[in-house]
Amino acid sequence: MIKKLYSLCKVVSLYFIFLQLVDFFHFKYFSVNVLLYASLFDVVLSVILTIPLIVNVFQKTLDGFGMLLVISLLLFFGYSYAITIPTIIDRSLSVYILEQIKKSGGEVSVNEYYRKINYDYFYDYKVPEMRLSEQLSSGTIEMTQDGMVKLTTKGKFVTDLTISYRKIMMPTHRLIIDKYENFNFK
Fold first, then answer.
1. In angstroms, how far is CA 57 from the centroid of its own chain?
2. How large is the greatest C-alpha to C-alpha distance in the chain, in angstroms?
């Protein structure tokens, strides 16, 4: 049992090395339309690259179903990585603020803090343009002939889910600076 666990740890470690290499080359040398989709593609490609290693390491100790479970585990780890690392770093206003405070010598005034959020963030990261491109690529919106941005059927479905989730599942009593307030999404 310990030997199998050690082998699994070795395979998972090598998988993450493959994933980092694939991500690096993909993000540096190829065009990316939607970061999350590109990351998920890299996850699948890295699993495919890892399959010969899985077969080599586990051929005597696991049957086909066991190997399928190892592959499923790698896909799950990769999905978790794709959501939590590149996607959050790309989209997180909180990460942006921390980076900007660090670039400013580790502290900023409250007024500068709000300026960075209200102006710099959207300009530096081209947030509206980036999100418009992603939504067009995802098929959740379309541009009309008269210059309007319109939800597609897929977009309506997604927004129905997210609005329902926000209303039902998101916390309504949130800490805002130094006190808890009722926070209802509109």
1. 30
2. 65
Distance between CA atoms of 61 and 11, rounded to whole angstroms? 14
pTM above 0.85, yes or no: no
Instruction: Let me know: does 95 contact 75? Beta carbons within 8 Å.
Output: no
Cβ-defined contacts of 14-21 (< 8 Å, 24+): 14/50, 14/53, 15/46, 15/47, 15/50, 15/74, 15/77, 15/78, 16/77, 16/81, 18/46, 18/49, 18/50, 19/43, 19/46, 19/78, 19/81
Q: Output the pLDDT for position 184.
A: 67
Residue matched to tokens 């980092």 = 20
At 168, list the tokens. Answer: 């039902």
Distance CA(124)–CA(99), nearest Å, equals: 12
Contact 75, 47 (CB under 8 A): yes
Please write the tens of the pLDDT for every residue from 137-170: 999 999 999 999 999 999 999 999 988 888 887 7
Query: For residues 40 and 16, is the Cβ–Cβ distance under 8 A?
Result: no
- Over residues 5-11, the mean pLDDT reads 87
What tokens appear for 19 in the block?
């994933």
Q: Give the residue among 160, 186, 161, 182 at the shortest CA–CA distance from 171.
A: 182
